[in-house]
Amino acid sequence: MEMFAIIIGAIFVNNVVLSQFLGICPFLGVSNKVDTSLGMGAAVTFVMAISSLVVYLLQYYVLVPLHMEYMQTIVFILVIAALVQMVEIILKKISPSLYQALGIFLPLITTNCAVLGVALLLVQKEFNLLESVVYAVSTAIGFALALVIFAGLRERLELADTPKAVKGVPIALITAGILAMAFMGFSGLV
Amino acid sequence: MGKNLSTFTSGLVKNNPTFVLVLGMCPTLATTSSAANGMGMGAATMFVLILSNIVISLIKNLIPDKVRIPAYIVVIASFVTVVQLLMQAYLPDLYNTLGVFIPLIVVNCIILGRAEAFASKNGVWASALDGAGIGLGFTLSLTLIGMVREILGNGQIFGMDLWQGGGALIFVLAPGAFIVLGYLMILFRKLTAKTK
Amino acid sequence: MVLVLFVICAVASAAVAYVSQITAEPIEQAKQQKVVAALKAVLPEFDNAPVAASVEGFEGAYYEAKLGDQTVGYAFESTSPNGFNGNVKLMVGFTADGTIVNIEVLEQAETPGLGTNMTVVDNPLLLSFKGKQAAEMNMTVKKDGGDVDALTAATISSRAYADAVARAYAAFKSVTTGVVEAYTSATQLKAQAEEGGAACGNCTKEEAKECGEGPHGKCHGNCKHQ
After folding, report:
1. Which of A88, B157, B184, C125 is the residue whose CA sits 20 to 30 A from C180?
2. C220 pLDDT exceeds 50?
3. What was the pLDDT predicted at C218?
4. Which of A13, A74, A187 lies closest to C12 in CB terms?
């Protein structure tokens, strides 16, 4: 039941992009086409699942026993950056086809604040190991969901006749605002 | 001096990080529910930006090219942690409101972007000014967005009532952030297009 | 190359460690100050430095306030998980005889503009508790047959608030009488009562059974016959 609440909460109610404002850069940057957003969503899910696991182990088996909690930010960002590199290298070796699909998105993920944000939040929320991974994966699914919906909207928006000053980011932001309003309808679901 | 001045002012309008470069959107949207919060976030970011610019321009010749990005990240993350600890100690209320977005200054593209594009190629003094200019541009933008949202959403400015009865709360909530930023960006484009 | 990176890391962590050391005390003080400020707001005048204590059957901490040698009141950090959007955490202050002095909201994530009105000065929710003798109150919202005025359009938030106060009062009784008062939330009671045949807002199982049988039950006022 608790797990269910975490999953629904992370995907819909507290959607990372539309209500927590994490990962806005890729949300605005790579959401032009549905295909690319799916690829990005998959890459983020992959990295978040692994990074949440590693971050959890680091926090509770290294930083806390050493009383170095204040090093959290520095350690987490370095670990995530290294992890992304590693995933890229391993993926290239093991599964070239998967690398073909996700490869170009991987370098972008280091600066995706949703990954570091989730790492910090799962420590703040005092989740256990399983909860952490479930939370990270559901958050990533929420991210992918918002990205894909938004890409669908933007594909149509491209064809619309908008004034010059409004074109591009501004109209995307206003559309995102309306989408966020729709997601507010989920509040109170859990 | 003229060059230094233009380094400083370009961050305010021509290279405004929020409205022109569209960088650092996460804190811009998340922490501008009131003018004071936006200003606090802007100031924290400016602090990190100036100091990391200074340090990076100082050590730029010592760092081998291959490891420069991780080195920059370490420098930035250290300053962010310092800000985090100082705020926790001396501004606990603001720290609680801004929450996870303080440590997230690390991944704010503005800071790593300036380190890579400016501080790694310029002297200490120019880098400090560049950091101050961009940081101030960011702070002013955030304060402006916060102000608009606070006025429309709560009928308040910096926590003082402008009129009785509040406002349309949607502007303080998530959708309002996107919409206000969208419209302000349109306005900014119109205004700068005219002055050209 | 690796050496340079290593040196940078070492210098950076040393600097951060230094700052963390000098800020450790102010951070602790800031946290302490927050608790003290909340205590001052919810308790009658006191002159000791209350320390956090715990009591069986209650999750949060509680504080005993003294003026001279005499205990003048207790404050409870009480959390209800039933908020609209997560936990509602309150600091509830009682005088030694069980009158509610004041309540401060410590943490909440309710809907802005509706549930968040619980933090507004003198909101109806707070006023329905403030200055009341806790023992004479039915701590559920009027919609559920209690004495608490709910916030407009925020019944769930109001229920959570009332629930947190009720939890604090149960703990107050445990502390003052020395007998552990097991607290069961309104929802749990409802489930129990349904097992027993009646749906009831906030009676014990026995009372619920009783009130299910007729209009003159002990707990009648609080029951919703379904």
Report:
1. C125
2. no
3. 43
4. A74
The answer to whether B109 contacts chain A (CB < 8 Å) is yes
Count how many pairs of residues, chain B against chain C, have C-beta atoms within 8 Å. Answer: 60
Do residues C46 and C64 make contact, with C-beta atoms less than 8 angstroms apart?
no
Q: Which among B56, B192, B174 has a CA at the least distance from the CA of B124?
A: B56
Mean pLDDT of B126-144: 93
> Residue C185: its pLDDT value, please?
63
Task: Report the gap between the CA of A113 and the closest CA in chain B (Å).
Answer: 6
pLDDT value for C200: 45
- Judge whether B64 and C1 are in contact, CB under 8 Å: yes
Query: CB distance C15–B67 less than 8 Å?
Result: no
> In chain B, where are the structural domains located?
2-143
In C, which residues are within 8 Å of A188 by CB distance?
84-85, 111, 156
d(CA A28, CA A102): 18
Q: Are C50 and C34 in contact (CB under 8 A)?
A: no
Contact B66, A64 (CB under 8 A): no
pLDDT digits (tens, 9 = 90+) for A8-30: 888 998 888 898 889 888 888 77
CA C18 to chain A, closest CA, distance in angstroms equals 11
Its pTM stands at 0.81
The size of the A-C interface in CB pairs under 8 A is 18
Set of chain C residues whose Cβ sits within 8 Å of the Cβ of B77: 12
Q: Within B31-123, where are the H helices?
A: 35-59, 68-90, 92-98, 109-114
Indicate the domain borders of chain C. 27-183, 185-226
Q: Does the beta-carbon distance from B66 to C1 stay under 8 Å?
A: yes
How sure is the predictor about B164, in pLDDT bands with cuts at 50, 70 and 90?
confident
Taking the C-alpha atoms of residue C120 and residue B74, their distance in angstroms, rounded to an integer, is 43
Angle value at C-alpha A147, between A146 and A153, nearest 5 degrees: 90
Distance CA A146, CA A179 (A): 9
Distance from CA of B186 to the nearest CA of A (A): 6
Q: Report the residue from A117, A173, A181 with minimal CB separation from B185.
A: A173
Give CA–CA dist B75/B62, Å, rounded.
14
pLDDT-wise least confident of A34-38, B26-30, B142-146: A34-38
User: Chain A contact for B106, CB < 8 A?
Assistant: yes
Of B68, B174, C226, B164, residue with least CA distance to A13: B174
- Which distant-in-sequence residues (6+ apart) come within 8 Å of C76 by Cβ? C58, C60, C61, C62, C63, C91, C92, C93, C94, C167, C168, C171, C172
Condensed to tens digits (0 to 9), the pLDDT of residues C149-198 reads 888 888 888 999 999 999 999 888 888 887 776 676 665 665 555 555 44
Q: Where are the alpha helices (DSSP H) in chain A?
A: 2-8, 24-29, 34-58, 72-94, 96-102, 106-109, 113-124, 129-159, 169-184
